TrEMBL record:
Domain of life where this protein originates: Eukaryota
Protein name: TBC1 domain family member 9B
Length: 141
């Protein structure tokens, strides 16, 4: 799922980078998939102890720029298939455009705006048809 970009700490021992390009990093939660074993058990226990209110998605995509220490979450996924779909969309629709920018701040502003636009479009598509049609009235029963 696409996420409203939020700043994150990347230097985190709980994540493993699986794919990267000059603008994005796809990470897997350490211990998820590929057997898990003791590491998976420890990370799972740590997640429960540190944040019992939310389950951490096992995959995420971060936006980065070369000279910045700041990273932004842009997507998360519960499966490799879901996160790969988002990764491929970013590669197919943004990479070429981002390479044109000269200023890293402009790149980040553009990416954040694009992600917010995707989220707004998805939310609009989730609304019932009668809520989207201007001038329509809802019947109360």
């Amino acid at each position: 799922m696409w996420l409203g970009p939020e700043e994150v700490l990347v230097a985190n021992a709980l994540w493993v980078t699986e794919r990267a390009n000059p603008f994005f990093v796809l990470q897997r939660r350490r211990g998820h998939g590929r057997g898990g074993g003791l590491t998976g058990l420890l990370v799972g226990t740590l997640d429960v102890v540190l944040d019992s209110s939310a389950r951490v998605a096992p995959y995420r995509i971060l936006h980065q720029t070369q000279d910045s220490q700041v990273y932004w979450t842009v997507a998360c996924g519960s499966s490799r298939k879901e996160i790969t779909k988002h990764w491929e969309w970013l590669e197919n629709n943004l990479l070429q455009t981002l390479s044109i920018f000269d200023n890293e701040e402009d790149i980040t502003t553009f990416v954040k705006g694009k992600i917010h636009g995707i989220i707004a479009e998805e939310n609009k598509n989730l609304q019932p048809q009668e809520m989207r049609t201007p001038g329509s009235s809802r019947k109360l029963s």
